[in-house]
Write a structure and sequence with these properties.
Layout: E1 2-4, H1 39-49, E2 99-105, H2 111-116, E3 124-130, E4 139-145, H3 148-158, E5 165-166, E6 169-170, E7 172-175, E8 191-195, H4 203-211, E9 218-225, E10 228-233, H5 236-249, E11 258-262
Antiparallel strand pairs: 1-9, 2-4, 2-7, 3-4, 5-6, 8-10, 8-11, 9-10
Length: 267
């Protein structure tokens, strides 16, 4: 079992490779016994020759603009930090709000620390951390839960005698004024189990593949066994859901790789 730190994914340029003809027993990643192909190159070439059927997942419109602003493509995928935008409702009654605002966190608090402080509450829909700005010396965070009950559980834990503490700092927790409704797709989560050929299902290939399609905050990666991995993101819609959709629509992987949602550690 191997664990990986959540370091930034590689940004090497995509190398296209032509798949040479060969014996029928050749695998999808082999152009000859002594000439293995780069999985990223195979993915790129398969996209080139895809002429019909399901369209591959397109890169986020935010990836192609230097300052992170959208390019105007209405069909682009959402930026990770906007993951709960579709659930935001300004006129939502207070008792249906699932969004929490956290203040007083360590200035350099990580997404891993924030999410691991949430235990026995409920699935988290998305988390966004605001680093210190101007006169503030601590970080803040917005946490959208999938259900009102999950948000209430976290709120009550924070206001109990023990509170919720990260690196010696007790978090100040209140209801977020920007309200979010419940996420009614109960089968989704921020965590994915991905299995398939180990040439594809490894950290270096998947990190590079995902980074070409959407922004993400990677919380935890675990190699359960060769070709079987757990990937935990900071949001459902724009990250975990995008990763699942991308693989299921990728010509080079759709028939080789299996991907499904796993239980959220915050439950």
């Amino acid at each position: 079992m191997a664990l990986y730190k959540t370091s930034p994914p590689p940004e090497a340029p995509l190398q296209m490779a032509l798949v040479q003809s060969g014996p029928s027993q050749m695998g999808p990643l082999t152009a000859g016994l002594n000439n293995p192909l780069d999985p990223i190159a195979v993915i790129g070439k398969m996209r080139e020759i895809q002429t019909e059927g399901m369209q591959p997942f397109g890169p986020s419109r935010y990836l192609s603009h230097p300052n992170g602003n959208p390019t105007g493509n209405p069909n682009g995928n959402y930026l990770g930090t906007m993951s709960a935008a579709s659930n935001q409702m300004t006129n939502l009654p207070d008792h249906l709000n699932t969004c929490i605002w956290v203040e007083g966190a360590p200035a350099d608090m990580t997404y891993y620390e924030m999410l691991r402080s949430i235990r026995h509450c409920g699935k988290v829909y998305s988390v966004h951390i605001n680093p210190p700005r101007e006169k503030h010396f601590t970080a803040a965070a917005k946490i959208a839960f999938c259900t009102r009950l999950g948000a209430e559980n976290f709120f009550h834990q924070a206001h109990s005698g023990y509170g919720i503490v990260i690196r010696g700092r007790r978090l100040c927790v209140r209801w977020n004024r920007n309200k979010y409704r419940e996420n009614f797709n109960r089968g989704e989560s921020r965590v994915l189990r991905i299995s398939g050929p180990s040439d594809y299902i490894n950290y270096s290939v998947l990190a590079e593949y995902f980074s070409r399609l959407f922004y993400f905050n990677l919380i935890w990666v675990q190699e359960v066994s060769p070709g079987v991995m757990i990937w935990e993101f900071s949001s459902i819609l724009a990250q975990a859901h995008s990763a699942k959709q991308a693989i299921e629509r990728e010509p080079a992987m759709m028939n080789l790789v299996r991907i499904k949602y796993e239980r959220d550690p915050c439950e």
